Amino acid sequence: MPLPEDWRCFDDAERLAQTAKNYICALADEAIRERGEFHLVTAGGTTPNRIYQLLGETARSDWRYWHVYMGDERCLPLDDPERNRTPLKEYWLDKCDIPENQIHYMATELGAEAALQDYQTRLNPELLFDLVMLGMGEDGHTASLFPGHIYAEGCDLLIERNSPKPPPLRLTLSASRLSASREVMKLITGTGKRKALKAWLSGESLPISWISAVEDHQVWIDQAAKPDF
């Protein structure tokens, strides 16, 4: 089975990361040129970390126009190594001069309910993101949206109380809010993802398949993740 037209397969994860970093920067250039700002939603998990490292090594004069959001976060103490915030800061955001008030971490150290209320004030309901980055777990989950779970509709933010991966308590943007973006880039690497990718391509409804985009939807995988048919 050939891959769909909006899918790209790279030789390895490093080439995917390098290309993704360049693509994100080019998209930022375009957004800043056309609208004066760039609004990016970051992904958790291990696949995006190399991209954050590359961004942290990039010298740009326009970081002040970037606005950075989180797709989801785990309810753990501040700076816990298992939080998505920790590598995001270490690899990238502590190394550039994006204004602090334009970096929107999810304050889950306050507890899920308080973090939801805080993040709701940070989300302009009229804002269309420029780019949403998403990873995918081996079960087909993305952000903190899991297969077989039922989620309320019409919400920007959701509390996941029973994640099958620890910790069970998490805060996540909803599928509809993640889809409110000009572009969505799904980044998937590693042999452990093959089974879920095959299920997705076979038509199974997985959370990764729930997210669309207003203008451009892309799926980037490496050769290791490419399913055999």
Q: Could you write a compact summary of the structure shown?
A:
With 229 residues, the protein is an alpha/beta fold. 28% of the residues lie in helices and 21% in strands. It has helices spanning 13-35, 49-56, 85-91, 112-122, 175-178, 194-201, 207-210; strands at residues 7-10, 38-42, 66-70, 72-74, 103-104, 129-134, 157-160, 170-173, 181-188, 216-222.
How are strands sequenced across the largest beta sheet?
Answer: 1-10-9-6-2-3-5
What overall geometry do the principal axes of the alpha carbons give?
globular
Q: Which residues sit in consecutive blocks of at least 5 with pLDDT less than 50?
A: none
Number of helices: 7
Mean pLDDT across every amino acid position: 96
Structure summary, number of beta strands:
10
Give the biggest sheet: 7 strands, parallel
- Which sequence of SSEs, written as H and E, runs from N to C? EHEHEEHEHEEEHEHHE
Q: What structural class is derived from the secondary structure elements?
A: alpha/beta
How much helix is in the residues?
Answer: 25-40%
Q: Specify Rg, calculated over alpha carbons.
A: 17 Å
Strand content: 15-25%
Q: What distance separates the N and C termini?
A: 6 Å
